[in-house]
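A reminder from the course coordinator: this example appears on the midterm review sheet, so study it carefully.

Given structure:
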């Protein structure tokens, strides 16, 4: 694992720049500042992927002086050129025209879906366990591959909030020596639809109502529930969204799934079918619903801030990449599950997830637009040894992703944008087009040719060519339809729901009740209840009671109760606490020597300590000085995974903080005067509230509780 990079103040992530600015505006010319220690730019490569020697800042701004886009130095950028001080602006003002014209064209079309995102650089290291099933070079033992990952929400615009109830995108670009491989997935293993032709329908239904453009980034409205209650193949995905998986605690604590089944080819020409899984080493965790609502009001950038701050603090998030392996049979079925149906998953009890590598995200982008916004993923970016299947949703994505990049990024040369440039040599014979930044040589961009010496030549499989797996196709009749195995819309929803703990099932019922309670049309609520009845009658009864409606009976026969899958519940295990945030309430009358020791110890252990005080600056007691991270005005419970009370400041804002932490099931500890504050709040003897004679002993118990994410008995 890469070493933690030092920052100016490792206790408080969020440093805006690499140096502390002076009080007065600088007057002496100086070169552009370098990126912060936690930042990294795309590798220096030409548009055709040749490695380039040079400093990391080679693509950033140059020189000490402000210039035009053509490099002419400027003496003034505050005043336009006028005919006299009060006269009209002159058309000849080329600097004004250039500056305003560029500003007018700064924005590009946002993604239709997954518009709201955050990204990071990292490295993937292969274990070698995949060598038996694929010849992909980046999966051979010990190979390290640079990656860039973009996390996202599906429904909201770029300006929407992070902690909405929604599916999350989990897209990874592997810059392999054999070409770029994109694994474009979600944090939910099943999808709303089985066929890509339905994609415009589900997105049109889930997006804001077209007349008012509200609600933003939410599924709690009539058009969404109208669609999913009629199009019942969406049932399983909808249920996952209504579970705690729909409101993750952090991108760092989120699973990723390739959703589709892929075909792998090994060195011996043997094929296997696989599903890809990302398993976070910090575990899979979520926020509770009230907490999510507070987050979206107090910090709509919650998830992107959490990811960037963790990387800046050196708490690099990690995921293991694993695969479920299935025989490549003509039926493409496994244990009665159609592997080409993207609304189905395979329980891990039937096909264990086998780890094949680990990914570490260890650097933030240098520029959000240039990297996170312009990165272009495509399921058709494949490498030798990995091929697609006939999943009808995947087949449509192979067309759609390429098409949308051309529209969004201004033409077919989006692969030449630095963040998208391959790390393998490119000789594609493509020419011209918008934003062409390569300077092609030669006179024969066609095949066959002799004028360019026959170059480029065709490659064989023995020298690394990508060769589609030859799959036999049976004679068939052209039709619009789906196999009978796609008709089961409820069994996997039942499996998922039955695998959840009682607490998680209660959250599902509350989510359905809230979402349907936001619908206007009574018929849509009634129809949705009919779908829920086919998942679980008790769940339907709870939701119906909350809506004040009768609970319908199931309309499809129930099979035997499914065998629960332990991998589907988020509750019950112990997880690492690296990167968690602990708030410490203190003032000048608190036990500041203990606070100082706790802050230092937590920072060394990879936990982020934030001291919360009545004022900013520092807390001073004798020879002890403790930097303040948050004040009672700027702190809110949503930022902290646990809370320590080193004193008992008499302030109503502390009482609100304490009340929210308690309601949301978070660990709380106190000593000395902090015990008095807990007693006054009436929670001193509650589960997950610990007291002791000194700070270190209380901290130890709180960290132990933190490994379970929440005090579940309190919820």
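Designed residues:
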């Amino acid at each position: 694992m890469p070493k933690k990079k030092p920052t100016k103040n490792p206790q408080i992530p969020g440093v805006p720049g690499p140096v502390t600015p002076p009080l007065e505006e600088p007057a002496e010319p100086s070169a552009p500042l370098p990126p912060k220690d936690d930042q990294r730019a795309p590798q220096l490569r030409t548009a055709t992927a040749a490695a380039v020697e040079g400093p990391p800042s080679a693509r950033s701004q140059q020189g000490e002086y402000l210039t035009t886009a053509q490099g002419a130095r400027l003496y003034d950028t505050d005043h336009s050129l006028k005919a006299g001080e009060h006269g009209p602006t002159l058309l000849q003002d080329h600097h004004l025209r250039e500056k305003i014209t560029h500003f007018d064209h700064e924005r590009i079309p946002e993604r239709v879906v997954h518009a709201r995102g955050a990204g990071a650089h990292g490295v993937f290291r292969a274990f070698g366990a995949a060598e038996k099933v694929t010849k992909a070079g980046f999966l051979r033992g010990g190979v390290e591959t640079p990656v860039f990952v973009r996390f996202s929400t599906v429904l909201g615009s770029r300006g929407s909030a992070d902690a909405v109830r929604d599916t999350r995108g989990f897209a990874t670009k592997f810059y392999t020596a054999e070409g770029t491989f994109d694994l474009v997935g979600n944090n939910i293993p099943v999808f709303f639809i089985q066929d890509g032709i339905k994609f415009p329908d589900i997105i049109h239904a889930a997006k804001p109502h077209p007349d008012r453009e509200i609600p933003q980034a939410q599924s709690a409205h009539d058009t969404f529930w109208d669609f999913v209650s009629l199009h019942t193949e969406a049932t399983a995905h909808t249920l996952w969204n209504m579970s705690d998986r729909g409101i993750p605690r952090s991108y760092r604590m989120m699973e990723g799934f390739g959703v589709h089944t892929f075909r792998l080819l090994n060195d011996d020409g043997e094929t296997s079918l696989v599903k890809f899984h990302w398993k976070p080493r910090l575990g899979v965790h979520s926020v509770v619903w009230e907490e999510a609502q507070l987050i979206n009001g107090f910090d709509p950038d919650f998830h992107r801030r959490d990811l960037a701050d963790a990387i800046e603090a050196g708490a690099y998030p990690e995921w293991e990449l694993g695969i479920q392996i299935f025989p490549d049979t003509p039926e493409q079925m496994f244990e009665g599950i159609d592997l080409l149906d993207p609304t189905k998953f395979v329980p891990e009890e039937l096909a264990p997830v086998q780890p094949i590598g680990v990914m570490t995200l260890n650097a933030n982008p240098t520029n959000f637009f240039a990297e996170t916004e312009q990165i272009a993923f495509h399921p058709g970016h494949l490498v030798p040894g990995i091929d697609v299947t006939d999943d009808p949703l995947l087949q449509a994505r192979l067309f759609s992703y390429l098409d949308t990049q051309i529209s969004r990024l201004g033409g077919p040369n989006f692969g030449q944008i630095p963040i998208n440039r391959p790390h393998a040599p490119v000789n594609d014979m493509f020419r011209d087009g918008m934003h062409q930044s390569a300077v092609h040589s030669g006179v024969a961009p066609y095949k066959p040719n002799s004028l360019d010496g026959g170059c480029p030549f065709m490659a064989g499989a023995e020298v690394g060519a990508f060769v589609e797996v030859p799959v036999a196709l049976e004679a068939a009749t052209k039709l619009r339809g789906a196999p009978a195995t796609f008709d089961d819309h409820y069994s996997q929803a039942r499996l998922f729901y039955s695998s959840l703990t009682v607490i998680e099932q209660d959250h599902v019922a509350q989510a359905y009740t809230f979402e349907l309670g936001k619908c206007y049309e009574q018929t849509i609520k009634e129809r949705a209840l009919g779908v829920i009845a086919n998942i679980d009658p008790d769940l339907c009864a709870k939701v119906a009671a909350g809506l004040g409606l009768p609970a319908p009976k199931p309309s499809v026969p129930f099979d035997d109760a499914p065998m629960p899958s332990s991998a589907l519940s988020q509750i019950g295990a112990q997880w690492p606490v690296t990167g968690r945030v602990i708030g410490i309430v203190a003032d000048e009358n608190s036990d500041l020597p203990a606070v100082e020791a706790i802050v230092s110890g937590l920072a060394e252990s990879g936990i982020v300590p934030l001291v919360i005080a009545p004022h900013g600056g520092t807390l001073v007691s004798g020879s002890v000085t403790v930097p303040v991270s948050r004040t009672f005005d700027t702190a809110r419970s949503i930022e902290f995974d646990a809370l320590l009370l080193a004193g008992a400041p008499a302030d109503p804002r502390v009482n609100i903080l304490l009340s929210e932490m308690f309601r949301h099931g978070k660990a709380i500890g106190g000593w000395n005067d902090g015990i008095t504050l807990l007693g006054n709040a009436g929670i001193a003897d509650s589960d997950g509230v610990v007291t002791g004679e000194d700070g270190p002993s209380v901290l130890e118990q709180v960290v132990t509780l933190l490994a379970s994410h929440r005090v579940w008995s309190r919820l």
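The two ends are 36 Å apart (CA to CA). The first strand starts at residue 39 and ends at 40.
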